[in-house]
Amino acid sequence: MIDFNNKEVFKLKQNEEYGEMVTELLIDSEEIIDAYKSMRDGVVFTSKRIIAVNVQGITGSKKDFTSLPYKNIVAYSVETSGTFDLDSELEIYFSALGKVKFEFNGQASILAISKVISEHTL
Question: Is residue 2 domain-resident?
Answer without folding.
Answer: no
